[in-house]
Amino acid sequence: MKKDFTPEAELLFLALGGSGEIGMNVNLYGCDGKWLMVDLGMSFGSNEYPGTELVFADLEFIEDRLDDLLGIVLTHGHEDHIGAVPYFAAELGVPLYATPFTADLVRHKLAEAGNGDQIELNVIDTQDSFALGPFDITYVPLAHSIAEGNALLIDTPYGRIFHTGDWKLDEEPMIGEPATEIELTELGDAGVLALVCDSTNVFNPEASGSEGAVYRGLLDEVRKHAGRRVLVTTFASNVARLQTLGDVAKVTGRQLCVAGRSLDRIIEVGQANGYLHDFPPTVDFDRAMDLPRGDVLIIATGGQGEARAALARIADDTHPIGLEAGDVVLFSSRQIPGNEIAIGRVQNKLAERGIVMVTDRQSEIHVSGHPGRPELEALYGWLRPQILVPVHGEIRHMQEQARLGQARGIPSTVFQKNGDIVRLAPGKPGKLAEVRAGRLILDGDIIIPADGEAITMRRRMARDGVVIAVIDHKGAVQVTAMGLPLDEDYAAFVAEAESDAGTALARLKGGARKDREAIIEATRLAVRRAAQRWSGKKPQVKVLLTEG
User: Fold this and answer.
1) How far is Cα 527 from Cα 496, in angstroms, rounded to an integer?
2) Which residue from 94, 111, 43 is spatially nearest to 442, judged by alpha carbons?
3) Are 368 and 209 in contact (CB under 8 A)?
4) Which of 350, 340, 354 is nearest to 319 (CA)?
5) pLDDT at 448
6) 234: Cα within 13 Å, side-chain hemisphere
C-alpha cells in the first residue's frame, strides 16, 4: 500500500461507519489500485447533536480518491445502509448497484431529493454476478427484517470475501427464499478467505427466531382481544411482518387499516416488486372508525416513540384513528437503544387512557433480524473462513464476536473500528494504518461537521444557557439572559451583572479604554462571573458593541 493509501497487489478493508456503532454503515474494500464501497447509510440524531436529525459518516477519505472508486453496492434497503445515498451519491459520482426492491426504495429517495437523473442506478437480479474492476460480486440472499436482505460474495485475485450485511437464519420466512445450509456449505467448500460479519446480537445466547413463530404469536394475541380495536406498531420496512399482519387480519376476519406514510411507501414498493401479492385491501381512517371495534386491525408507525409518527398522535388523541380504554396496542418491534425515553413517553400516555399494551417481553410478537450466537456459530461452520472481521456493532459487540470466532476455531480474527485500514491478504491479516473517520450531520438544510463550532456552541448553550451583553455608545451595559435557572432572582442578577460589567470597563487603562477587543473581553468575563455566582452555570456570553 502506497503512502497515499492506494491499494497495491493486496486486499484491504476499511470501515468509515458502522464499526464501533450500530448504524451508519459505510465499508470500503481496496484491491489493485481501486476501491469498492459497500453500503452508504446514516444514523438518526441524538441529544449529542441538539437540533439535528441525521448523522452521516465523513467520506473525506474516499472523496480524496474518487478516481479510484468503482461503485457503491447496497446490501439491502434499511436506512442505516442506504439512508445517506441521496445526500452523497451525486457528489461521489459513481454507479449504484442494488437488487430490485432496494433499488426501488433508492429510486424514490433520489426522486425526492431531486437528483435521480444525476445518478446511475443498476438493478441486479438476486444471485446474478457482476464485475467492477478486480471485484467480482454476487448477491447471496439471507433472511432479515426487510425484503431482499443480502450478503455479498466478493471474489478478488487475493481471496474471497463473504460480507454478510444484516442477516439471521429463519426456517419459516414469510418473504423471499434465503440461501440454504447446503448452498452456504458449498461456498465454504470453495473457500472463503474472510467473513465480514454482523455483530449486533452476539450477546444473545438464543437464535433470533422465525417469522413463522411471530405469525402464530400475533394471531394468538389478536384472537385474545376479540371485540376490541387492535393496533400493531412495527418497523415500516419489515415487509415480512406486513405480510404476517395481512394474513392475521384475514384469518381473524378483521379489516386492515394502515396509518403512516412510510408504511404506504413500503407496501407500494413491495407490491411493485412481487411481494405482498395477496395483501388484503385496506380501509381508510373514517371507515376504520365506523367499523365495530373488533372488526378492524390497524398497522401504525411510531413504535420507537417518534413524536410525529402515527402512534404518538394516536396516544395524544390528535389522529383520525382513535383508541379507547380496553383497546390494545401490540409492539411488534424491538426498542432501539437510545429510544427508551421516547417510547416510554408514548406508552405512558396510552396507559393513562386505559389502553392495553403487549410487547415482545410478554408474547412472541417480534423477532430480531440479526443473528444470535447459535446462528453465528452455524455460519462459521458452513463457511469455514480463514479470517473473521466483526462489523456492525459497538466495540463490545465486535470484540465479543472476535472472541466467539476464536473459540469456534476460526484461524484469524481482526478487530477493527472506523478508520482502521486492515490488510486481509496477502500475508498475516492485521491493521496497517489509521485514517480520519469523522461524522457529519444534517443541520437544517446544511451538512456540517459533527465536531464543528456550530454544534459545539449549541451543546454548550443547551447545557449552560446564554447571556447577551449590549454596550451602547455611552458605555452603558444592558444584560439579557436565557436558559439560566434564576426565576425570581433574574432581575437582581441582571442588575449585578450590569454593575460588574460597568466596573470592569471603568478599570480599563490607557489605550485599552478604546480597544474593541479589550472592552468585549472585560465585559464578557465580568458578566460570566456574575452568572456563575448566581446560578452555578458558566453560560456562553456574547458581547455586542453598538456604533456611536
Assistant:
1) 9
2) 43
3) yes
4) 350
5) 81
6) 30
pTM, two decimals, is 0.90
* Structure-block grid coordinates of residue 265: 411507501
Q: What percentage of the chain's residues is helix, strand, coil (to nearest 5)?
A: 35, 25, 40
- List pLDDT tens digits, range 335-382: 877 788 889 999 999 999 999 999 999 999 999 999 999 999 999 999
pLDDT of residue 339: 81
Cα–Cα distance, 74 to 64 (Å, whole number) = 21
Instruction: Locate 112 and state its grid cell.
Output: 425526492
Cα–chain center distance at 401 = 21
Rounded to whole angstroms, the Cα distance separating 500 from 492 reads 12
Question: Using CA atoms, how far apart are residues 545 and 516, in angstroms rounded to an integer?
Answer: 8
Of 334, 322, 395, the closest CA to residue 359 belongs to 334
Sheet holding 477-482, edge to edge: 477-482, 466-471, 540-545
Cβ(1)–Cβ(7) under 8 Å? yes
How far out from the chain centre does Cα 386 lie? 30
Quick one: cell of 134? 478486480
